[in-house]
Amino acid sequence: MMAGNRADLAITMLDLHDGAQAEAADAFVMAQAAGTPFHRPAWMLGVERATGNHAHMLAAVGPSGQIRGLLPLHHVKSMLFGQALVSSAFAVDGGILADDPATVAPLAAAGQAFARNMGDLSIELHGGPSPGEGWQAYSEHLGFVRPLAADDDAELLAVPRKHRAELRKALANPSLRVETGRGSKLVRDHYRVYATSVRNLGTPVFPARLFREMLDRFGDQADIMVAYDGDRPVSAVLTLYHGGTAMPYWGGGIHDARRLRSNELMYYRLMGHARAKGMHSFDFGRSKRDSGQAAWKKSFGFEPRPLLYHTWSPDGKARDIDPRSDKYQRRIDLWKKLPLPVANLIGPFIARGLG
User: Fold this and answer.
1) Which residue ranges does the record assign to the BioF2-like acetyltransferase domain (predicted)?
2) What is the DSSP letter of 267?
3) pLDDT in tens, 287-341
4) What Å distances lie between residue 62 and 7, 31, 58, 100, CA to CA?
5) Which CATH architecture has domain 2-141+308-319?
6) Which residue, 280, 284, 287, is CA-closest to 307?
7) CATH number of the structural domain 149-279
C-alpha cells in the first residue's frame, strides 16, 4: 500500500480481474453523481482486452475498508506517440473520482508516484476535479449536454428552426430508416460506416474488437443504431447509457450522409429511443473548439460547455497527440487518400497508441 496525505486513508492498487474488487469499484462509480462509464471496470477492461493498454485502478480506502475514491489509469504505449498513463484511454471523461474533495490530493500524489515507478511517465486526466499544484490544466474541447424533451414532437421543436427544417426533410424521406440493437449485422454495419467516416477525416480507426468488448461488457447499457438508405448503411453510432444519460459515442456517416441528412434522422431517433429507455439527458460528446462538429451540435440545440483536462509530467513535457499539430497535418492528408481496406488494416495499430 501507498500512504496518502489523509491519515484515515490508504491508497492501494485494485485488481480489476478479481471479481469482488471490480464489483466494489463499480458500485462506487455508480453511486457517485460524477461517475461516468469511463471510470467503470467495464470500460477499463474492455480497452485493455481490445488494445493491449493495461488497466490500473488506484483506490483510496477508508478505515472501514470502503472505497472513498478512484483513479483509473491505462498505460498507453506507442512507437509514434510515446507512453503515458491516461484516465481514461479513448474516453471523453475520466480523472479522479472521489466522494470527498480531501481525497483528491492523495490519489493525485499516488498517481504521480506510480507514474515515476513506471519509468517517469506523464499522466493525462480526461476530466475530474483539479488534482492540485504541479498539474497543467487545458481546455481544447467543448461538451454538449441537454435534457431530453417530453416526447418526439417537443424534441423536434427543441431543435433550432434552421436545423429543424433539415431534420424534417430527413423525416420525410421514405428511403431512410433506422435499426437499433446489438446483433452481429448492426455491429458489422456500424464498423463499416465508422471506419469510413474516420478515414475521411484522416484519423486511424480503432480495432473492431473495442466495440465488441464494450457491447459485451456494458450489456443492455450499450447498443448500436444504424441509419439505412434502403439497405445501405449510411450513418451509425454506438451509444452508452449511464445514470439517466444517453451518450452517443462512436458515430459517423459516409459521404452521402450529408446529402441524405441521415445523421440528423439518426440522432433524432436516438433521442426517442433513449427516452423510451428511461433516460432524461442526452450527452452529444465532445468536439474541438471552433470545429465543424461543434457548430453542428450547437445547431441541433445543444449549448457548448468547456471541458477541463489536466496533465502532469516529471519533466513538464506532455505528449503531443493533437491532430491540429503541424507535424501531423501531412500524415492526416495522406491518410484521407488511403483505400479503406488498407486504412482498416493498419489503422488499429496506430489508433491504440493515441489514448
Assistant:
1) 161-298
2) H
3) 999 999 999 999 999 999 999 999 999 987 766 555 455 554 555 556 566 676 7
4) 9, 16, 13, 11
5) 3-Layer(aba) Sandwich (3.40)
6) 287
7) 3.40.630.30
